[in-house]
Structure formats: C-alpha cells, structure tokens
Amino acid sequence: MKKITRRYFNKLLGTFCAFSTLDTLSSGPALLLAAERRVVVVGGGFGGATTAKYLRLIDPHLQVTLVEPKHNYFTCPFSNLLLGGIKRMGELTHSYEKLKRKYGINVVHVAASRIEGASKKVVLQDGKSIHYDRAIVAPGVDMRFDLIENYQADDIVSMPHAWKGSASTLRLHRQLETMPDGGTVLICPPALPYRCPPGPYERASLVAHYLKKYKPRSKILILDAKEQFPKQALFSTGWERLYGHMIEWFNGSAGGLILRVDAKGMAVETEFGREEGDVINLIPAQWAGRIARDSGLTDETGWCPVDQRTFESTLHGGIHVIGDAATVVAMPKSGFSASNQAKIAAVAVIDLLNEKEPTSPSMANTCYSFLAPDYAISVAAVYQLSGGEIVKVKGSGGVSPPDVDLSVRRAEAIYAQGWYDSITPVSYTHLTLPTNREV
Q: How far, in Å, CA of 199 to CA of 188, rounded?
C-alpha cells in the first residue's frame, strides 16, 4: 500500500466532510415530500451560508431562509494577505446571488434582533417575523471590551482589531501604509478561546512581509496573553528565516498580558510597564455574537453549549448553533470548522424533521497560515463523536514538517489557495472589485 504523506492528507481534508455527509445521505433521511417544512438560518458566514446550501441540496422541498444583514460577505480567512499587500479587497468579498439563484434560498438582508424558541420565530429589526420548524444560528463572534481596564468600543478606531468585517481590516491596512519607516507595530492577541487561533501570528508574518518591502527599519512586537501559541516552532523558524529579528514575541508571563489601554496616547500597559506603538492591533477577547446572547443561547462562558451530535442548543430545543459561537472544545474556531459543522447540522436537522435518529458525525479541520506569499504552513485533524463529545481521532492530522526545503513551503501556499477556493465559492459568488480603497 502506498504511504499517504501528510501533505497529501491535508489536500484530502477539503472534501472529507462532504464525502462523509454524502455517505450518510445514501441511506439517510427520506425527503420531505409532504407539506413543506421551514428552516431559518441566521448568519451568512462560512457556517450559515454553507448549511443553507446543504439543506436545499439534501432536500429541495425545504423552505430555507437565510437571514443576513450584509449584501456582501468579507472573509476573515485570507484577510491577513490584504494587510500584507498580497490580496485586494475584491478578492475576499463575495455576494449571496449564487445561494438565491442556484439553490433557491430566500436571503433576507435584515438583521435578526432575537429568536423566540417558544413561538418558533425569528424577529427582525424591521419588526417583521419569520416562523420556522427548526432554526440554525451561526452568529460568529463579538468583541469584548470589559476585560481590559480603560478599553472601550470606540478605541477600535485608533486600535483596530481587524478580526471581524472589512471596515476594521481596511483601517489597519491604511495605518500600516501611513506609518513611518522605523515605526513600531504592536500586535496583541487574547487568551483562548477566540476565532482563528493561529491568525495573529500569520498576521505578524504578513505585516512583516509588507514592512520588509516598504519600511524595512520597522519592528513588530507581539504582546501575547498566552504562554504559547499554535504552530509556534514553525512560525518562529520562519520568522528568523524570512525576517531576521523584525518580529519579537512576548508571552503573558514575560510582559505580554495587556492590563490597561491608553488609546489616545497609542499605548498599552503590562505588568512590565508601558509600550507605545505607531500602529496597535489589539485583538480583544471574544464571545458569541449578540443574537445568540440576546436569545438566551449562551451560558456563563459567553459561548453556546450544544448537543455535539446535532449541534442543537442544550438551552433551547429546536435551535441549532454552529461555527465560532458553539462550545466544541476539541475543534478550533475556524472557517473550516464552521463549514464542516454546517454540513453535519444540515443532515441532523433533516433527520429530526423526519423524526429519525441523527447519525454520529465525522469531521475534519485544516488550517493554513502564510508567512510570505510563497511560504505557508498547516495543521490538520480529524474528529469523531465519543461519549457525547466531539474528540480528535488519535493519530490523525499533524502539522507541517520542520526543516524542509522551501519548495515544500511553496507547495503549501498553493494548497492554501486551493483550500480557500474550495470552501468559499461553494456558497458565494465572487465579486471583482478593483482596489482596497474603493470598498
């Protein structure tokens, strides 16, 4: 038998969950051929848009409504490439036309204000309501401004987090453009859990790529609330190889934990003193998006506990929560995890509507991180249900090998682009926008 290499394994992960889902459906739920049932999906990110699509693919008789206030979706995956001057805004911005035209999904571009489980309806901000038989909520994350002294929501103007939406990302991009050569960039990641655990370190890498090209006397300091971070050895080796001493990382016990913010003075304070920056990218702690909190779907942690077989809320029956907001400790909060969970939830909802026992899910996650346009690394894992919880399959996945030829890193960069293309266009229609400044 031919040995399967780690890189080949990673290439297969992009289709793993889809094939698992289709295998389930081959002996799975009967189509709802009688009265049409109504499923409302709240949130149009990787999780929400994907589950809306798969609901219609599995059962074309379903009435599926996607509630998403934005007309275009800006993807957080690959947004660091924009900061590095490698991608343009239009390449990361997508419309919902494909969902409407190809899959027959009713897309409502109005924000949801709350979900009423007892009456089975989603109340919109315009006062209208949409009734459902089951609801799937993919609310993403909101930023928390209550855990650091003197930190306010308005501070994201001068210290953009660039962790949600296009406006904050563009603001950080423009600050980097106007920063003087020889300036200091502070990147401040929070403690876990948060969206995309390796993201801050990919960001540091690609900002360094930009600075090396245009402002080579500048420096990046990472002030980290954690003691260690994902793919740390691979990042550290890559930073030294590509950028010399431009990037310095400080863990929480070495002065990385942010205690206080001075947005007007463009500084943060740690137990070791005050650090000033020309650009400060403070990434706040996070919790489930507001619609989940306002609808009683979160517990004391700020996240949404779910039945990990079906992703149905353990607090409100008939409502399923997927993606970053769901409490699934084994899986990272990532776009790929959300896409996988979306497919499992779609199958589970149709099973439950047909009064059938949902099957046990198998899922995967893979995460690529760029350190330069032609230099990427990855981590991957496979998950299964065990004792009512999703756990990593022992021995599955792995990380990129260390100490390899640069051709391996270049190949991973190509795989990363293929990964993005494979999970994004399945739900969205790509927009062509000429520049970052015209959005």
A: 11
